[in-house]
Amino acid sequence: xxxxxxxxxxxxxxxxxxxxxxxxxxxxxxxxxxxxxxxxxxxxxxxxxxxxxxxxxxxxxxxxxxxxxxxxxxxxxxxxxxxxxxxxxxxxxxxxxxxxxxxxxxxxxxxxxxxxxxxxxxxxxxxxxxxxxxxxxxxxxxxxxxxxxxxxxxxxxxxxxxxxxxxxxxxxxxxxxxxxxxxxxxxxxxxxxxxxxxxxxxxxxxxxxxx
Length: 211
Prior knowledge:
Blueprint: H1 2-12, H2 14-25, H3 29-42, H4 52-63, H5 69-94, H6 109-122, H7 126-129, H8 136-146, H9 151-176, H10 180-184, H11 186-210
């Protein structure tokens, strides 16, 4: 229970936790950033870790001089690309048998079905679009593997999506994070980065099911 409470607090106040980690452990924060993004994108059992909000906060901290912008981006890019590649490989290994899996503590069947419906609608471009969508982001590469997308094609989408996602949001945080309005409303921005994409995912799933 304490672990769950900490995870929720970390997701909702990622800026405070990261700043505290930097003060206490210095450069080890880059290892933490790699781990968070790699696990979120590489393991289907951890789709709830912070994504967009984490990248924005990292960019803002780099803009404030607390982190190295080039190093942070390089670490996050490596984590995002390697995470998706790992997830894709796991999906290729398990293949179509995944459709018979039931909802469990370690497998979110509903999220998988949403990602699969999204993939059926948009094809390979899903790997790029999903970078900006919680839960879908975690399951999209897995679905690509299950659907037996070629590794070369998946890798191309993976790299392009990671570049747009990491550099786009980190850069936005870098230049906007120092604005007084953003500083004063950072917690609301984090909530928006969590809630808005989530609502879009649910709307898309509802439309898909209705169709």
